[in-house]
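INTERNAL AUDIT FORM
Audit reference: QA-55
Scope: verify that the stored structure record matches its stored sequence.
Auditor: D.O.
Record contents follow.
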Amino acid sequence: MPPKKKRPALHAATVLALLAGSAFLTVELRKDEQDKAPEVQAVTDTPGRLSNGASAQGGKQTWERLRNPDRSVLRTEGGKVLATFTDGARAATLTGPSRTFTEPANTKSRVVTDDWVRLMPEVWRKGAEKEKWFKDWYKQFAGSEEDDVFAMAFQYVEGAPVKKDDEGIAYRGDANFGPLNPNGSEGNDLREEQSDFYDYLGIPYTFRDGTTIQPEAKRARSMDCSGFIRTVFGYRARYPLMSSDTAGDGLPRTANGMARGKVGTEVIKLKGVGAADRPKTIDVIQPGDLVFFKLDARTKQRLDHVGIFLGHDADGHKIFISSREEVNGPTIGDKGGTSRLDGNGYYASTLRSAKRL
């Protein structure tokens, strides 16, 4: 009998020990996860209240200033992020209705996101939330389902339907990377680069510096990696465009020009192009950022690929979209390297910098 009386006490002690151990492991795991995540910077401004009528999200809203990069974040009363605005950049990330982006022709990956990336009419700066231009803009786009950068980007993947404007110009639809290279082969310059948005459209384009460039017939319906970025952010979202990497002001022509140029704000600074220059962490990037890669030793010190970071796919991987010769156009697909920024795959290991336009 005595042993039976001690069992409940022993059982209780065992349970308490297990619970204590579980709690310890939970705390340690949480600490580990926090160590992996970028530390939230101290608030540098006194939070203020947005008074421009952005009541679609309801409740009180507060502003805070964060560093690395310097930015203003709008939150709900409960702390949920409604929008992020980065100093020196026009691209803003707003929280909106959830969407799912897929590209069934080339991958099973699915990107489910409530991030909407839009260009503001002016570059963000500290205190801009008090200015009329911003209040008017935010009132128009908070909660809006009008096409944003992500929607536009997926309007060029394989199988995307063609749509024409009032002048009969097909401004969206399945895009190629470029014409077949007569001297190329599978995995070795199979397709030619240098196809820009005006080639895709098939119309001459006059830039703000007065330069007019004619499209090449062989490049019709084509855009290389930087041409894709210029199509989405420039021709569609109206970010100013340079006619080359050196002429005019705005978004340069090449991936290297975009990475090294003055536009936007660096969120991962370019240190170099070698394997040792791969960023130690990429947690600072946010949806809509341009990501730059060093893929080809023949281009020497030049960065030679660029894409748009989308966020996480349904499997938790960091995914980007770019125009690539292997898939022959814009893709989040797997051919020629998975479109992931995490892990040690082809693109993850060649990532060198990131910028917020």
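Auditor finding: record pair retrieved intact. Residues 26 and 32 are 10 Å apart (CA to CA).
Action required: none
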